[in-house]
Amino acid sequence: MKTLTCFVYCLLISSLAYSQQEWTEANQLIAGKFTTEKIDDWWNELRQKNLIPLTQHDSVLFLYKGNATSVAWMGDFNGWGYDKNFESTGIKVNGTDIWFLKTSFPSTARLDYKILINGNDWIVDPNNPHQQWSGVGGGSPNSELRMPEWQPDPATVFRENISRGKLDKDLLFNSVTLGYQVTYSIYYPANFNQHNTYPVLYVTDGYEYLHERLGNMKDILDNLVADKKIKPVLVVFIDHREPVNRSNNRRMMELAMNSRYLNFVADEFIPALEKQFNISKDRADRGIMGSSMGGLTAAYFAFSRPEVFGLAGIQSPAFWFKPEIYNLCDNPENPPVKIFMTTGTIKDAEEGARKMKTILEKNTCIYRYTETNQGHSWGNFRDTIDDILMYFFPAGS
Question: For the whole model, what pTM was predicted?
């Protein structure tokens, strides 16, 4: 153990020294102390070692090499350009085609960004291999800034040689309440037995939560069940895209504290599935979960119909969209709902989430609350899915 501890310590010291060397050389470049040959060698070394952007502790040096009249960095950290107080414009190193931007973030941060060339060309960072896809319906890639102390959550990574659950995809439900068809998918845990009774979680934006580049939730479920960190659970992923025209996404209508949509899920959809599957009818075993507008919806569903939903997973909630949600939740007479709420701290939903947290505390609700040094991104949502699942469905409970 002592030898191993010494090895890890020495490795850490070596890494810090190496990082310091790169920063020293970067500062020499900025000061104009590099020859053209040295610049090319330095740049190629950074690229080969995947060190762009260059990070150290809580500092980051964004870098771009190419002909341009202006270069700027836009991302979670400046509201994708809406925060004019954040200095996002790069500086060109004299006599070179290298642009840089120095700034700082928490050492555990993970953030999405793009490079804006000449004020109109948005590109992913051509020298950064790390990407995070974002957006509705599969979205598009952004570059990913990984600060030194951020590490990918092992629960989100596909693993070989474990028993895997089954996914029935793109099922159709003809809703009388809504007057149209709804697409959904169902996850069955490994070794599913139709004679057993299972808890259930209903997930809005289901297509995105299942997408391997976004929520990647099936792999997370498989890993947690295999590691016996959660009990086997059925998960119903509700897709808001119109079945015959996937480009028409109805989420902004369905997830905006829509009482008709609530009645569909609570009074039509859930009873139908409970007739078809051996799902627990105990509200303590039934949850609703979503992010952004889906986070708003999870709170709305749980506090409007607490006799139906005993669990609410609320990720980066868009409470700003419907401020009346605060009054709905601020009722000490509400039956207890077990809540897990998360938000990022960098231009995410932290203001509204913290306000809701105060309400939950005042009314002595059963809840857990976490903040991550991230923005409003699927990378952020994905990182806390396992925490929510382990809180709601712990193994052995």
Answer: 0.92
